[in-house]
């Protein structure tokens, strides 16, 4: 009986990609119940920042996990969203992350370690953040916050800490 229950349960693939909120609009960040839908929660600007788990993308919108981490607080604070049957969505223009570890040759033209790397100066990559566009397997398509470069990087190289660079 237990085996049959497991076999009938839906399987949801998660990307394991995480990003922090980098909303440069000057307004609180809107979380919606659908892409471009009704706002169900707003996140005010705070000292530490928020980190979200990205679940899926749809036309520049990202469905996020309902558990939002708050960085920079004394305890492991979080916000738990509830009440939406369609999930929670944010626009990619408010999401960002950096590159963990070595910066050189991380961003590539295609989602493959064999693809040609973009020629980007390491100091430039330390000055800009990356915004997520889409996911293909273990790769994430990114655009720099200044919109000068678009490419692919391994999800494993994401630094989702809004307060520091990752090793």
Portion in strands: 35-45%
Low-confidence regions: 1-14
Q: Given the helix and strand composition, which structural class is it?
A: mainly beta
What proportion of the residues is helical, as a percent range?
under 10%
Work out the count of structural domains.
2
Summarize the biggest pleated sheet.
7 strands, antiparallel
The CATH topology of the largest domain corresponds to SH3 type barrels
Radius of gyration: 17 Å
CATH class of the largest domain: Mainly Beta
Tally of DSSP β-strands: 14
Could you give a short description of this structure?
By secondary structure, the protein is mostly beta strands. It is 8% helix and 38% strand. 24% of the residues are buried.
Description:
This protein has 167 residues and is mostly beta strands. It has two domains: 17-96, SH3 type barrels (Roll), CATH 2.30.30; 100-159, SH3 type barrels. The protein is 8% helix and 38% strand. The chain is built from two helices and 14 strands. Strands 1, 4, 5, 6, 7, 8 and 9 form a seven-stranded antiparallel β-sheet that branches. A hairpin with a 2-residue loop joins β11 (130-136) and β12. The radius of gyration is 17 Å and the shape is globular. The termini are far apart. The model is unreliable at 1-14 (pLDDT under 50).
Topology:
Layout: H1 2-8, E1 17-21, E2 29-32, E3 39-43, E4 49-58, E5 61-64, E6 67-71, E7 78-80, E8 88-91, E9 95-96, E10 98-99, H2 122-127, E11 130-136, E12 139-144, E13 150-154, E14 158-159
Antiparallel strand pairs: 1-4, 1-9, 2-3, 4-5, 4-6, 5-8, 6-7, 10-14, 11-12, 12-13
């Amino acid at each position: 009986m237990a085996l049959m229950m497991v076999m009938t349960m839906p399987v949801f693939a998660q990307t394991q990609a995480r990003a922090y909120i980098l909303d440069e609009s000057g307004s609180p960040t809107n979380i919606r119940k659908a892409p471009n839908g009704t706002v169900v929660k707003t996140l005010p600007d705070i000292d530490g920042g928020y980190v979200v788990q990205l679940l899926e993308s749809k036309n520049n919108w990202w469905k996020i996990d309902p558990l939002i981490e708050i960085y920079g607080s004394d305890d492991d604070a979080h916000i738990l969203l509830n009440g939406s049957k369609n999930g929670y969505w944010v626009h990619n223009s408010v999401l960002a992350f950096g590159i963990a570890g070595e910066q050189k040759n991380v961003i590539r033209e295609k989602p493959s370690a064999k693809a040609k790397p973009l020629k980007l100066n390491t100091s430039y990559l330390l000055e800009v953040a990356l915004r997520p566009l889409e996911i293909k397997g273990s790769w994430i398509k990114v655009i720099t916050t200044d919109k000068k470069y678009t490419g692919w990087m391994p999800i494993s190289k994401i630094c989702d800490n809004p307060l520091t660079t990752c090793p």
